[in-house]
Amino acid sequence: MLSNWQKRFEKIPGFTFCMRHAELIRYIVVGGATTCVNFAVWFMLSRVLFADLYARNEALWLMVFNWIAWAAAVIFAFFMNDRFVFRARSSGVALLLRFASFVLLRLGSGVLENTLPSLLVLHLSFYDLIAKVLVSVLIILLNYLFTKFITFRKRRKVPMPDQTPAVSDSEEPSQPS
Prior knowledge:
Distance between the termini: 42 Å
Order of helices and strands: HHHHHHH
Number of helices: 7
Structural class: mainly alpha
């Protein structure tokens, strides 16, 4: 059932699409913010705080700073996805299990995120920022699939064996004879 304000906004082009795909839109926004966190941490480390180290051995420090930026981005992404994108609002053990799943899956994509830019820079002579952008696009796509279908998948509630299923309105209860 649509609320009063939704009925008014239904006439705006694209509103229905946005309502149908709200989760994906939220994921894209959070993914963009996560990428900004990743880039900001990496940029601060490689260009501001440790620029002299980075200049001396670019490939090594690219990997080190990528891992640090990755860790900051993963922590940010988990809580944003939990609260805002998938609205899981996990707590206690469920939060820890989701976080463990999230981190393990992100470790897999993190390995790609941290090896591919170095390979592109060292072996294919890519400019480091171009390599980082290209790999980031791939990682965003992979992470969406992992997050939606594994970490935050909707779990069906299965009735316990000792519970009787609820009788629907269309079924009539049997009469004792």
